[in-house]
Amino acid sequence: MSTSGGAEGVWGERFPPRIGGVPGGVVPPGDNADHALARDLAAEAGRRLLELRARGGEPDLLRKTGDRLSHQFLTAAIADRCPGDVVLSEEGADDPARLTANRVWIVDPLDGTREFGEPGRTDWAVHVALWERSDVSESGDLTAGAVALPAQGQVLSTALGEPAQCSIGSVITGPMFHRGGDGAQGDGAGGDEEADGAGGAAEVDGRDAGAAAGSRGGDGRVRIVVSRTRAPRFVRNISDLIDAELVPLGSAGAKVAAVVCGEADAYVHAGGFYEWDTAAPVAVARAAGCHASRIDGSPLAYNQANLWMPDILVCRPALAGTLLQAIREVTNAP
Predict the structure, then answer these.
(1) What is the pLDDT of residues 86-114, one digit of tens each?
(2) What angle separates helix 252-260 from helix 275-287, to the nearest 10 degrees?
(3) What is the distance between the alpha carbons of residues 43 and 11, in angstroms, rounded to a whole number?
(4) pLDDT tens readout for residues 184-200
(5) What is the band of 116 on the pLDDT scale with cuts at 50, 70, 90?
C-alpha cells in the first residue's frame, strides 16, 4: 500500500499543535504506513471540522454538515490511498463486500455530533481504524487506529511517535452522585453519548497507560468515565460496590482517551453502540497497554455481520479483575 504524495499532502503536518502516538504500549501488527495513515486521516478530518465549526451557524445544520464533510473526506481519501479496501462509516451505507474483504476501514467521521454543535465543548472526536485479516478463513482484528480530539489539538494513535497529551479537566464538573432520578436514563439503546473536554493539557510522561496511577482522584478512589446522559444503572451499582467516582464525559473516543492518558481508570458502558463508536478507541487503548473487552470479559469483535455492540470495558489492566468481578456481582452473572 502506498502512502506517498496525494493531493492533500502530509495531512498531519497541518494539524496543530502536534501529532503523537499513544503513551507507551505496543504497536499492533500491521504495515507501519497504515498506522501513520490512520493518524493523518483523523488529523486532517479534524482540521476540516475545526474550520467548519469556526464559521459558526445553526447548531443542527452545523452537526449535519460536519458529519457529511468528514465522511466525504475520509471515504474519498481512503479510496485514493487504499484502492480495494472497504470502508464502513457511520454516515455511509453498509457495503456487504466488507464481510469477504481482508481490509476494512471502520470510521466514525464525527463522534460526539451533539457536542460539536455546542459552543466551547471539546470532547468530540474523529475515529479511524483498520480491521485486517490475511485470509477469509480468519476472524481478523483491528491492526491500526487513531482518535483525533481536534478541539484539544490532539491525536492518539497506534503510530509510534511523541508521548500523547490530553485533558478532561475542564469537562469534569464533579462526580455523578448515585441518587434515584439523578438524570441518568438507564440502559437505552443507541450510540454512546459524547461530551466535551477543554483546558490545558496534562503531560503524559510516556509510561504505559496501563500502569499510570495519576488518574485517581485526590482521595485515591477509582475514577470511571460514564455517559454524559445515559450512565447505566449497573455502573452506578458498581460504583457503590467498590466506592468509585463516576465521571460524566461525552464521546466514546473522549472517554477512552481519558483512560489511555491516565486521567481516568476505566470506561464501562452497557447501553449499546455500533462498531464505529469503539473500533478506533479500542485499537488505541490496546496499543497503550489497556484492557479492552466486553463486560463479561469476552473479546471485542469487529467487522461482524451485526454491527451492534452491547457493551464495553476499557481500563487499566490492574483493575480488570476487580471490575469484572464487580460487574458479575451487580448483574448476577455466574
Answers:
(1) 999 999 999 999 999 999 999 999 999 99
(2) 10
(3) 7
(4) 333 333 334 433 322 22
(5) very high
In a domain, 2, yes or no: no
Q: What angle do CA 225, 228, 232 make, to 5 degrees?
A: 70
What is the span of the domain harbouring residue 222? 166-331
Residues facing 104 on adjacent strands: 86, 131
Radius of gyration of the chain (CA): 18
Total domains, the chain: 2
The answer, yes or no, to whether residue 206 has pLDDT greater than 60, is: no
Do 148 and 209 sit in the same domain of this protein? no
Residues 119 and 181 grouped into a single domain: no
Higher local confidence (pLDDT), 232 or 249: 249
* 119 vs 280: CA distance, rounded Å: 25
Phi, psi (deg, nearest 5) at residue 134: -90, -20
Task: Look up residue 3 and give its three cell numbers.
Answer: 502512502
Q: What does the DSSP 8-state code read for residue 294?
A: -
